[in-house]
Design goal:
Length: 590
Amino acid sequence: LKPFWLKPFWFTLKVKLCALSRLLTSGGMRFFQGITAWLVVFFLASCAAQDEPEDLAAMKQEVAELRKLILSGVQQEEQGRRLLPQGWSKSISGDTVTTAYTDEATKVLIAASKATQADVGIAMDSIWLILCGALVFFIHAGLAMYQAGSIRVKNTENVMTLVFLNICIGGLVWYIFGYAFAFGGPFKTDKFGEPELDNGAFGGSKGFAGSGFLKEDSDGNMVGYKLDAKGYPTQALMLQWFYKWGVCSLVGAIVSGGVSGRITLYSYAIYSLLMSFFIWPLIAAWTWGYGWMSKIGDVGFTDFAGSAIVHIPAGVGALAGAVILGPRDGRFDETRGREMYPHAMPLVVFGAFVIWFGWYGLTCGHTLALHTSLQAALAAQVATNVTIAASVSGVMIFGLRYARTKIYDTKGMCHGIVAGLVTISAGCANVENGSALVIAMIGAAIYEGCSWLLVFTKVDDPVDASAVHGACGIWGVLAAALFDWGLGFDHYNGRKAFDCMGKKTLTDPGCTDGIGGKAFGVNIAVMLVIVLWAGILSALIFWLCNKAGILRVSQDVENMGNDKMLHYPARAYDLGRGKEAPAVVPPPII
């Protein structure tokens, strides 16, 4: 038992012990403080040895806890000393050490966060463009159904073969030559900090046959992307190659609809090859590839998703082919008019739905990235305008045809939907939703007039490709400049979408005044150049094939049908009518 005179002293010691514990756990422990604390513990333990058993147990627990706290403080102090950069004084305070390492750790975390953000951004862009590229590819399936249903049943296989042949030839030629001419570069930076094709080149000169798609690092491993100046990854070149392959192949696929039913397979293959080889790639180089059309007048053209760049070449190509080929046998014979009706409206309607569905990849995908909220908002803006334009154009053509013929023209409605899609493609990123509606209404009227003009001039275009894609493409690129949502004709947004165009200098990023009229003039010039370039070359190819006697199938093949005379199986459908002897010998069964 403690003497009564020792109890006040014992209480004081316990108070001191608690205060010391709080002091020692506050951080900034020094080694000599640790030695002093150990002496205090030793003294208290000696005193406690004379206590009662229950007091001794409590005291041992307190000592053990204090020992753990002291060890933790000493270890942290020694670890901080070991991590001090060379040249730092060992007498620096613990607070200074903590602040320095906090700052250093923050810098490391920020750098790691930026690298991770760049990785995630590239991954999101890659997913986005691969998905949109697949949707563009799916448009070809829609075109195959759309065109096959629009012609006579005896040419169904032939039409679908043309579309498939086009995309296969397009893939090979785009890989070897087309991509390099369109987007291979080299590029430089202009006075506004934007890329442009180097030396005013006519087209790209790098990237043939996929050169530069992959790089080899110092260890001999293949790397699929490049690092920018800050060491962050950039988009793989193969990403743009894949997306633009589907866009390039669309031109030839659209043309096949205008010449279907009477063109030979090999003459169409020649046209498809040359279109993917240099005709369309050079148009792409001048425009989307940062060529001279993107800089003309210090404003550049405005065609976000291809009303002019994609659909005008397709439309004028279909027109040139249809004119040089001539009409199908019996097309304008009033006694045989019913023979030219679409043989399968379900295919036409299904094809129109697939084209509409894939169009979201063709238009929204031209954001070319989706790792920021601004790009996401732009994609939503584009999708909304595309939906409005297709809807109003389809309804308007349906109404116009009914008013004129008192007949529900389902095929005409499908053509109207595609006409609306083509019309809005150029301006879908820089016009308001209400403007998109007006643009599509005018586009529908233009399509209807041009469709009538084709029949009046006896130009046989089975799917109205020249009216839908050519005429509506011309109107679309003009409307993109006329209806731009910039401030009247004073400011102009164009291909910059949410931002105004015409930066004067890098230090003065304000809007340039009074360029709306100039932008409209630039779009007229771009449209005329594309019409002449694609139209003249397409006409030349078809004319040469015609002179060589390989452009059009023989009269027997046209009468009997391409499927029966040239394809195997000899017909597209087997409706249970019994077996017929094929006109061609089938291949051996393996």
